[in-house]
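Suppose you are handed only these lines of text.
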Amino acid sequence: MIRHHPTLETLLAHAAGTLADGPAVVVEAHAQGCPQCRATLDALDATGGQLLGELSPAPLEPATFERVLARLDVSPAVRPSPPRQASLALPQGTRLPAALRNAQIGRWFWVAPGVRYSRVRLPWAPAQNLMLLRVGGGRRVPHHSHGGMELTQVLWGGFRDGDDRYGPGDLGEADETTAHQPLADPEGCICLASLEGGLRLPWLTRLLGK
Ligand SMILES: [Zn+2]
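From them, the structure of the protein bound to zinc ion can be written out as follows.
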């Protein structure tokens, strides 16, 4: 049962195409497994399409039209290459979301005791900060806050964040006002996370004496 969903604000931004590519992939991964959010997004798409249909069509400048055609021409060349699916040794039965099918997924790197990270690169938006996180049973993610929005979709296992518990299919949303230190369930967890504005790690800042 899914208990945590993206906020309506985030779903609206996704439907309007104004969400950055990293968070958009996380919201897609969530919606692929959440009939409730899928239905909301479909309804928003239908509404948006209707609104567009009601606007009087403005004639397209010939130059604009040519630019659009030119972009269509180049698209096959910039189409992402097939994913380089590293051996992530995921627990049996764990499937990466279809939203990651064109992403390039690196190998696991150690980031903190019990915490490993794998960079997820979107060939069409390589600057996006998207990652898989694997947290060992009973381990905590280092205490941190964010410079922007953080979306975390649980793929396997679960974690606690304050009084809230997140299980498979749940999406956690945090922003620059949130400082937290999620705690993995006894079996651990694997999440897909997008991060905007970087991570603020007070313990690291203290360590570096900055
Ligand atoms: Zn949902």
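What can we learn from it? The chain has one domain: 1-210. DSSP finds five helices and eleven strands in the chain.
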